[in-house]
Amino acid sequence: MNRAERGTRETHAALPVALREAVDDFADHLSRVRNRSAHTVRAYVGDLVSLLDHAARMGCVGVADLDLGVLRSWLAKQRTTGAARTTMARRAASARTFSAWAHRAGLLPTDVAAPLASPRAHRDLPTVLRADQVTALIEAPASRPTTPAPAPAAGAEGLDDERSMAGPDPSNASPPPPADGEAARAVVLRDRVLLELLYATGARISEACGLDTADVDDARRVVRVLGKGSRERSVPYGVPAQRALDEWLRAGRPVLAGPESGGALLLGARGGRLHPTIARRVVAGYAAAAGLPRTSPHGLRHSAATHLLEGGADLRAVQELLGHSSLASTQIYTHVSVERLRAVYRQAHPRA
After folding, report:
1. 131-149+160-298: what CATH class?
2. pTM score, whole prediction
3. Active-site residue, 281 included
4. Does the annotation mark 345 as catalytic?
5. Fewest C-beta atoms under 10 Å: which of 62, 197, 223, 256?
6. For residues 184-215, b (16+ Cβ closer than 10 Å) or e, as one string?
């Protein structure tokens, strides 16, 4: 549990009983009825605890005491403490979601947050790699040494072996390979298939790490992805990703598989399902080793979407591939393509 989560729990425990119960019921609604991810529930609950703590300090003892003035006062306080526009927008959305739920549940006589305005979040254009940079990133695992490393020094037994086997660390592009050469080769195959799948499918890192072997349809070269809100979609992948998958399933996964593996497609060094944190370090580490700009799994998702649109793909098709519920989320990639076109124009046109 990090510091922010501890602070949220402590503040939640200090709330009046009626407000504390409302937080718990709202969290249960988000998780069971709205089917929100654990990450989304944590974010909304953290915002709500902050709001209700502010309301309690203003004399509110129950949800029915909330009004628009309290909500605006809370947001104004967030602004004075330096909260970013994106944070302010999310917190306003959390307040509106809670208010609508509380009204339906009979805890509020009216939906007091309905007229609550929030600042429009500034959306930076995502960082996008060129196609040749993506190729360099995906091929980076092939250059990683897999010979056994010297025995660890005394006192090093407690180090997490996953750290040494999850690809280069961004701060040190050439970490020592693990002592077991066979396992090291298996991890390299795992890293390669991870990079191939992230770019080939445009999947989110949580979606890629959540894949099972049963989700892969070799015959049609399609993978079944479980996205946000438990929405399922089928995403095609190409021949390079198929080759990486075949090699991983034949010579990599069986080496790492253990009692904790279950049906997980991508495994960590200890045999459990690959954790997104490790996967992020894999991507960042190989990008650093290849001399590329700072890159994350989401950067590969951005790159895949942009390259599809630049290659002539329909915006609706890209929306379906990425699993966006709204076309507006996909349209940001059209801006990326236009910016790229402008850059090329300025560089190449004699009268630019």
Report:
1. mainly alpha
2. 0.66
3. no
4. no
5. 62
6. bbbbbbbbbbbbbbbbbbbbbbebbbbbeeeb
